[in-house]
Amino acid sequence: MTERNILETAVMALYTARRDNDLDGLMSCLHPDCSFRIAGTERLAPMGHTVTGNDAMRTAMQEFMNNWDFTKLETSGIYIDGETVFAVRSGIVRFIPTDQSSRTEFVDHFTFRDGKVIELVEYIDTLHVAETVGLVTF
After folding, report:
1. Cα Rg for the chain, rounded, in angstroms?
2. pTM for the model
3. How far apart are CA 47 and CA 129, in angstroms?
4. What is the CA angle 13-50-17, rounded to 5?
5. Is the N end or the C end of the chain the one with fewer CB atoms within 10 Å?
6. Cα distance between residue 121 and residue 96, in whole Å
7. Residue 7 burial by CB count (10 A; 0-12/13-18/19+): exposed, middle or buried?
8. What gap in Å lies between CA 29 and CA 113, rounded to an integer?
9. Which residues contact 131 (CB under 8 A, 6 or more apart)?
10. Residue 29: which of 67, 63, 2, 66 has the closest Cα?
């Protein structure tokens, strides 16, 4: 089992790379077989759709970096149990295409293998994201 401080350091390195739009740095935190999904319905793509493997992850992470500014997010808690890490994040996110900013909070669920993230599930306010990107209107 990986030591707690190594897992916490890995999560913070991933968040730093994401904040800095450092795709190579972010990818170095991920296992080659890593999968990622945003918990939610596939009817609100990309929510619910699982991305798996190095090439697909690189493409998805670059797309997120192109569209979402995470420079004003803070990590308020990291909870570790074995190879599982939950991280609570909050702050201002900006949807770059429309320059729309809003306050949010979410939880990332990481599973590690060999010191790298093998699975990442993000729990966010999917309705808020769908409204922000124009998938739904009220």
Report:
1. 14
2. 0.91
3. 9
4. 15
5. C
6. 23
7. buried
8. 11
9. 137, 138
10. 2
